[in-house]
């Protein structure tokens, strides 16, 4: 495979800077957020230095250029997930905001008392709490697809949980941020469609967008949410994809500039999607940064990144076996590029603190997925996660660091 990880890594200023340190920085927290390549930083820097203006409102040429750049990022996002139309891409603050937008806008209009929303036992809090809030307001109920000990969802339970006429929404993650389980999205959606084609399906793609080629038409999801900062782009920007007919039937969540058609004191009519859902001056530089991140991902090739990450994952799974008393959570059929584990010797926070002393960045805690911790009967885990730039020496350093944790806590 001619994937030149060294060359890719050098495009990331933070990593390149610390690779020269006596204890080079091992960044194993890409699931939380990825580092940014020069290409993305430059796109945002150029915008601020050379072209800065608002969008849509001005007739002067710089404003027109910025509007073009903004809309061209929308086109890139649409092509990135193979949406049928650019107008199916709504820019939001991130996955959390995207799920909340779908939950509140769709839910307020369509959910009634005793309707049901089905989620999975592997969800991030963003895909649990958003639904609980709207369910509480509408008097709807939440049901949960259970997870097996290996971290795979128990898909056979879907026909028991998803009930024609009662279930209105099913929402689940493409890839779990705690165990890494890659769910068979297409198969799950096909099963739901067979039960009741009118059920709306939301896919949380926060952890899949930077790793797996997504085709919303092939998956046949109704909504899909992802964040820029987890796919080499900036913070503060994300996407809610929605099938156009569904978005068109949904009311706006926020009122303000640029989301209207006509305003009088008596009545306001709204713009068509996506403008209807993008009130106010948007995060323009972040949208441009997201567009650049998509260009960067396309240049490197998402399939090549996936293969590289899977190689790192296999290497990490093998190497971590060298650490006595280490237990990896789950063994799903398909795992994304992350591993969660516990140590017999130390609490995850203590272990992560000692790893930090060695310049090794991992995440410790419940990973915004407390129900997953409860299901697997652990208070917290250590999570090591990988990206396009991860190298094997970082895994070696992690293993050395964990052996040191074992030595210190054995004292
Ligand atoms: N869903 C999943 C699966 C996630 O991993 C995350 C981020 N950890 C989110 C949702 C929320 O994303 P954001 O914080 O970017 O809104």
Secondary structure tally: strands: 15
Q: Characterize the biggest β-sheet.
A: 7 strands, mixed
Strand order in space, largest sheet:
2-8-7-6-5-3-4
Low-confidence stretches: none
Helix content: 40-55%
Evaluate the radius of gyration. 22 Å
* Backbone shape: globular
Specify the CATH architecture of the largest domain. Answer: 3-Layer(aba) Sandwich
**Beta content:** 15-25%
Structural class, please? alpha/beta
Question: What are the SSEs and their pairings?
Answer:
Blueprint: H1 5-9, H2 13-18, E1 26-27, H3 38-51, H4 61-80, E2 89-92, H5 95-110, E3 116-120, H6 126-138, E4 141-145, H7 158-161, E5 167-173, H8 185-195, E6 200-204, H9 216-219, E7 223-227, E8 238-242, H10 244-248, E9 260-263, E10 268-270, H11 284-300, H12 302-320, E11 326-328, E12 338-343, H13 348-357, E13 360-361, E14 363-365, H14 370-375, E15 381-385, H15 392-410
Parallel strand pairs: 1-13, 3-4, 3-5, 5-6, 6-7
Antiparallel strand pairs: 2-8, 7-8, 9-10, 11-12, 12-15, 14-15
Helix pairs in contact: 3-11, 4-11, 5-6, 12-15
The chain binds 4'-deoxy-4'-aminopyridoxal-5'-phosphate (PMP).
Catalytic activity: (sulfur carrier)-H + L-cysteine = (sulfur carrier)-SH + L-alanine
Organism: Hallerella succinigenes
Family: Belongs to the class-V pyridoxal-phosphate-dependent aminotransferase family. Csd subfamily.
């Amino acid at each position: 495979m001619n994937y030149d990880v060294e060359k890719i890594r050098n495009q990331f200023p933070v990593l390149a800077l610390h690779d020269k340190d006596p204890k080079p920085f091992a960044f194993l927290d890409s699931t939380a957020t990825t580092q940014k390549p020069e290409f993305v930083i430059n796109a945002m820097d150029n915008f601020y230095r050379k072209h800065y203006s608002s969008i849509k409102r001005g007739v002067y040429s710089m404003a027109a250029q910025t509007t073009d750049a903004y809309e061209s990022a929308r086109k890139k996002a649409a092509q990135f997930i193979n949406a049928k139309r650019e107008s199916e891409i709504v820019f939001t603050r991130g996955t959390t905001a995207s799920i909340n937008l779908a939950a509140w806008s769709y839910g307020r209009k369509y959910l009634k008392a005793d309707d049901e929303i089905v989620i999975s036992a592997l969800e991030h809090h963003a895909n649990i709490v958003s639904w609980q809030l709207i369910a509480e307001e509408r008097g709807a109920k939440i049901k949960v697809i259970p997870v097996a000990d290996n971290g795979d969802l128990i898909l056979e339970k879907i026909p028991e949980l998803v009930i024609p006429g009662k279930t209105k929404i099913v929402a689940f993650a493409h890839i779990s941020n705690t165990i890494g389980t890659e769910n068979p999205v297409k198969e799950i959606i096909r099963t739901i469609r067979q039960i009741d084609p009118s059920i709306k399906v939301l896919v949380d793609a926060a952890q899949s967008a930077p790793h797996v080629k997504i085709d919303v038409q092939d998956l046949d999801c109704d909504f899909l949410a992802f964040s820029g900062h987890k796919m080499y782009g900036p913070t503060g920007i994300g996407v809610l994809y929605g099938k156009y007919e569904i978005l068109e039937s949904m009311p706006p969540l926020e009122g303000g500039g640029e989301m209207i058609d006509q305003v009088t004191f008596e009545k306001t009519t709204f713009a068509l999607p996506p403008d209807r859902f993008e009130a106010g001056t948007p995060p323009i530089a972040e949208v441009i940064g997201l567009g650049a991140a998509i260009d960067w991902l396309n240049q490197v090739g998402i399939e090549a990144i996936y293969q590289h990450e899977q190689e790192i994952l296999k290497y990490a799974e093998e190497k971590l076996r060298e650490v006595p008393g280490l237990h990896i959570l789950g063994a799903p059929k398909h795992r994304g590029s992350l591993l969660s584990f516990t140590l017999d010797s130390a609490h995850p926070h203590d272990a992560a603190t000692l790893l930090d002393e060695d310049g090794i960045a991992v995440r410790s805690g419940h990973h915004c997925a407390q129900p997953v911790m409860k299901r697997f009967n652990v208070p917290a885990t250590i999570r090591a996660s990988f990206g396009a730039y991860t190298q094997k020496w970082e895994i070696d350093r992690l293993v050395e660091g964990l052996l040191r944790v074992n030595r210190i806590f054995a004292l």
